[in-house]
Design a protein that fits this description.
binds nicotinamide-adenine-dinucleotide, alpha/beta, N-(1-d-carboxylethyl)-l-norvaline Dehydrogenase, domain 2, 17 helices, Rossmann fold, 3 domains, two-stranded antiparallel sheet
Length: 409
């Protein structure tokens, strides 16, 4: 196995929202040199400012983490920032890298081009990891010249909200690289909880892997709900209040804005082509992206953003569009169905992995209450498929049979 203690220099290609988060985690994990690369210096400087002061919330920045006493002994924000390098020239950025994170936009061609360059420019020992949220690692690795050293390492936002890393094997990724990345992922701290990340090994690729695949299918249902609400003149703020689960938690709409609507749009396009045409970007999303309203990063998306804060949603503005119990039942039914598909396809070996993934994301797992609910959920999914006109929502064979109950492992 590659000795992860020999991994000292990390290069991050793409210094946007996720590049900044990953670089920050690498600093907190104790790496001696973390190099940020992007298409221009202004973007890199903005990224450094986000690492220091938080992207959209102050508490996420190194300064706030230091003030809260959560840095390891002997470390300060200034020491950590001193370990950051800024480099626009890709060749210089990766010349002595032991590990490279690719964190550019969610576009297959762009990622392939970056990996083509990385294959030529990074030292032969370097492991090349993509933070893609949906795209096949094998495809991304095709032009890299070293597909056995290419892997998916998928981090999630918000930095403070969860502790999941999906580690994805491409067709040619070696065991050695998988093992090294697993150990490396576990070294990344979760700054809020002060404990380790949960790294889930995904040995077989599937579009969207685990978490984003589930989210995108739930998105089919949300799109349908949103369309009905918009027809009734309900605003996005009201819709968010409707699904609000507490002041501090981010609702679905805030989370979309926070992620970046261009990134969401590109991910949906990929899943539309590779998983099911029933996943699609609705016109309201297309309109926002085309008008340059990309969410938190541009100050406006579904909601209005001011720097340093996430939008305040007044949860008293509920308009009684949905019955919470029915909403939760539908979400659980869809989650279980997609979990069963992941089992059917061999993407996960048993549903205990799925439970851990949900726990790391702070979501309830449908498998934990499936035994007494799945039969009524199968019927509910029939209804949802009928109402939305989306057949993909229908229960798969494994869910219908109930045989998944024996597949805990
Ligand atoms: N935003 C999320 O919630 C989220 C979560 C998990 C994974 N991801 C994945 O992470 C990746 C990046 O997403 P993001 O939200 O950070 O996007 P972003 O738009 O915030 O940042 C992307 C950055 O890449 C830069 N870039 C573009 N082309 C480049 C190139 N050739 N070389 C170097 N830099 C280049 C851009 O200038 C930009 O700064 C995507 O693959 C996305 O799917 C995103």
């Amino acid at each position: 196995m590659t000795d992860i203690n020999k991994i000292r220099n990390i290069a991050v290609i793409g210094s946007g929202l996720m590049g900044g988060y990953i670089a920050q985690l690498a600093l907190l994990a104790g790496f001696e040199k973390v190099t940020l690369n992007d298409v221009n210096m202004e973007r890199i400087d903005n990224c450094v400012a986000r690492i220091e002061n938080g992207a959209y919330e102050k508490k996420e920045g190194l300064r706030a983490i230091e003030s809260a006493g959560k840095l390891d002994e002997g470390l300060t924000t200034n020491i950590l920032l001193g370990r950051l390098r800024k480099e626009v020239d890709l060749a210089k950025a990766v010349k002595d890298a032991d590990f490279v994170f690719e964190v550019v936009p969610e576009l297959m061609k762009l990622k392939q081009e970056v990996f083509n360059n990385l294959g030529k420019l990074a030292p032969p020992r370097a492991i090349l990891a993509s933070n893609t949220s949906t795209i096949s690692i094998s495809k991304i690795a095709e032009l890299s010249g070293r597909p056995e050293q290419v892997v998916g390492m998928h981090f999630f936002i918000p930095l403070f909200g969860n502790r999941l890393i999906e580690l994805i094997r491409g067709k040619h990724t070696s065991d050695e690289v998988m093992d090294a990345c697993f150990a490396l992922g576990e070294r990344f701290p979760c700054p809020y909880y002060k404990n380790k990340m949960y790294v889930v090994r995904i040995e077989k690729e599937s579009p969207g892997f685990i978490m984003n695949r589930i989210s995108a299918v739930i998105g089919i249902y949300f799109n349908w709900l949103a369309e009905q609400a918009l027809e009734k003149g309900v605003t996005w703020e009201q819709l968010e209040a409707e699904a609000s689960i507490g002041e501090d938690a981010m609702g679905f709409i805030t989370l979309l804005d926070y992620s970046g609507l261009d990134i969401i749009y590109d991910g949906l396009q990929y899943l539309h082509e590779t998983l099911t045409p029933d996943i699609e970007a609705q016109q309201f999303l297309v309109d926002l992206v085309q008008s340059g309203n990309l969410g938190a990063k541009t100050g406006k998306g579904f909601l209005q953003w001011t720097p340093g804060k996430k939008p305040k949603i007044d949860s008293t503005k509920k308009v009684g569009l949905f019955k919470v119990d029915e909403l939760l039942d539908s979400l659980m039914a869809i989650q279980l169905n997609e979990g069963c598909r992941l089992l059917e396809e061999g993407v996960i070996p048993g549903y205990s992995v799925f439970n851990k993934v949900m726990l790391a994301m702070n979501y309830p797992s449908a498998f934990s209450i499936a035994k007494r609910n799945y039969e009524k959920w199968v019927l509910l999914l029939e209804e949802l498929a009928e109402q939305t006109g989306k057949n993909y929502l229908k229960a798969c064979d494994l869910m219908k049979s109930g045989d998944f109950i024996q597949m805990r492992k």
